[in-house]
Amino acid sequence: MGCKPLPVKLVLFTATATAQQGVALRWETASEENNASFEVERSAEGKAFRSIRSVPGRGNVQSRSTYSVVDEAPLPGTSYYRLRQIDFDGTSTYSPVRSVALSRASAQHLQVYPGRLPQEWVVNCTLPAELLAASSSVKVYDALGRVQQVPCPADATQVGRWTMDTHALPVGIYIVRLTTSQGTFSQRISK
């Protein structure tokens, strides 16, 4: 019984922050055998990975091949990346994990704006869905820092979106605070 060669000889896999707050992913293979594709996978904590991009493989080649993609919407803070190489028969192997840390201040992840109905406000979070766990919550505080009882159900059709009913709030300045696994984001509104 002979040894079966590895289907892909990965010689390089890098993940680098770009000037536009993206992540450039680059990898090279020395050769490929029955290589159907690569799945670029991302994780917030380095354990549970989710595919963000599929890249076709080159099938059978005995020469060097270079691949590159850019994650234009990386997670705030640290993102972990790996490649899942998939053969034509469906078997797969994984690359080593790479991490990239981005500044959290690079983007505003919370938007609060008037809704379609009077006294309605929409809370929209631009964080990727994998960071908006069921534990994410929206609270409204008055100018003295007291929590206000404001109905704010999550939108069942869009992850990262809530609708606030402010009928019961008197005129004033309020802070809308969204708490997620990646931190707390706040925006001031006036009613």
UniProtKB/TrEMBL annotation:
The protein's matches in InterPro entries, at most eight in alphabetical order, are given as: Ig-like_fold (IPR013783), Secre_tail (IPR026444)
Top-rank taxon: Bacteria
What is the name attached to this protein's record? Secretion system C-terminal sorting domain-containing protein
Q: Which organism is it from?
A: Hymenobacter lapidarius
